[in-house]
Amino acid sequence: MLRFLTAGESHGKGLVTIIDNFPAGVKIDEDFINEKLRLRQSGYGRGARQKIETDKIEFLSGVRGGLTTGSPISFFIKNKDYENWRDRMDAFKPVPEESKIHTPRPGHADFAGSIKFGLDDIRNVLERSSARETASRVAVGAICQIFLKNFGIEFSSAVLNIGGVGAKIGSEFNSEPINLNLFNPSIRKNIENSELRMPYPELEEKTKAYIDNIKAEGDTAGGLITAQVKGVPVGLGSFTQWDEKLDAHISMSVMSIQAIKSVEIGAGVKSAYLKGSECHDSIYCRGNRDNENTDNKEQGNPISNDAALFKDSNSGFFRKTDKAGGIEGGMSNGEIISVTCAMKPIPTLMKPYLDTVDLNTCEPKKAFLERSDVCAVPAASIVVESALAFSICYFFLKKFGGDGLAEIKRNYDGYFKK
Ligand SMILES: Cc1cc2nc3c(=O)[nH]c(=O)nc-3n(C[C@H](O)[C@H](O)[C@H](O)COP(=O)(O)O)c2cc1C
């Protein structure tokens, strides 16, 4: 079972990550990983911290001569900012009393984390709950993407809306997120050229102005994100148990990202407002098994079980719509898998709007201020894409098994030769 663990504090020496059960023989492209890390650091509205850091992956184990060995992969991402925090973050020096924080920020992990662990300094909670940890997750997702590229599986992500500027979903749904194909070259170009990772060039300046205003007010913004994956074979995940379902796993991966407050697959919330005839994606087949697919003709398999048809997009089953977001019954159905999620506004505000209390004295206070992002939705879109990549990789390996790339390729090819 593919799994990973992360460790590290926001202003500690760095982040350590271990990926277990990753197959051998996968050629690792460091530049691809570092580019994803760079994208996670970028985006209009980020705080000063990103000017200090230049995240780079340093492999500690599991990769040799550019190829994965099958042993646990471990890697380090350095926090350059640690040099500025040594006095407060050293493993053994006493923590200066005056640096301790007792006023939890509403919306952050501070309150429940301090009470749960019985801590007298909120920094012990905020250092680990910080989204600095998402650098590890992005690197994990990039490594999963590198592996999945061997099977023609591709990922993309975008920002749909910041603080209400842009596309809407839910009751205000205008059909954009499910009809938006992030693999369309012109949409892709728009996302790449946007500092907001938005596919709407006409909204770029309006959205930046919104962020500028929010910043001037000492406030913060959230937004909507979408991520998609194409080329996923039919049948990843399962309908047989609740915790084997692909949509459930993706939801957990994405919902566990700091500040993500909703996860929708395909039409999501909008499904509640549609009739069955409007919601479900009719099934079609390009071609006829008897005259177009000789392999299967020989095998005589029933067409409904015929995975071979999906391999060749010119002869496979297909849908004209994708409101299911590529998942039915907890399994991939061969269409683009699309996930849309809401990110709440950053909880650390630059002006003391929010009331809180001193946890030691119960005195009313204003929430403490710490250097922070105004808007991190573009960065979070890369994290969502990475979380999706991990879930797809997890189920891909579950379905096709094997310890090395060559063995997995044989299993994959075998699936298409029923
Ligand atoms: C990429 C990214 C950057 C973030 N940057 C900040 C930040 O600078 N300041 C902050 O207070 N929260 C930031 N957050 C959000 C908090 O980490 C998050 O709200 C907090 O951990 C509480 O978790 P919850 O919102 O999931 O309940 C960021 C989240 C992401 C995904």
CATH names the topology as: Chorismate synthase, AroC fold
Low-confidence stretches: 289-305
* Beta-strand content estimate: 15-25%
Helix content: 25-40%
In the CATH hierarchy, what is the architecture at level 2?
Answer: 4-Layer Sandwich
CATH superfamily placement: Chorismate synthase AroC
Total domain count: 1
Number of strands: 17
Radius of gyration: 23 Å
CATH class: Alpha Beta
Give the cofactors and ligands.
Answer: flavin mononucleotide
How confident overall, as mean pLDDT? 90
- Termini separation comes to 25 Å
Counting helices, strands and paired strands, the structural category is alpha+beta
Description:
With 418 residues, this protein is α+β, with helices and mostly antiparallel strands. It has one domain (3-281, 321-415): Chorismate synthase, AroC fold. Helices cover 33% and strands 18% of the residues. The chain is built from 16 helices and 17 strands. Strands 8-7-9-15-10 form a five-stranded antiparallel beta sheet. A hairpin with a 2-residue loop joins strand 13 (327-328) and strand 14. Helix 1 crosses helix 6 (134-149). The longest helix has 24 residues, at 377-400. It is globular, with a radius of gyration of 23 Å. The two termini are 25 Å apart. The model is unreliable at 289-305 (pLDDT under 50). Bound molecules: flavin mononucleotide. Flavin mononucleotide binds next to helix 15. Residues 47, 108-109, 129-131, 134, 257-259, 344, 346-348, 372-373, 376, 379-380, 383 line the site of flavin mononucleotide.
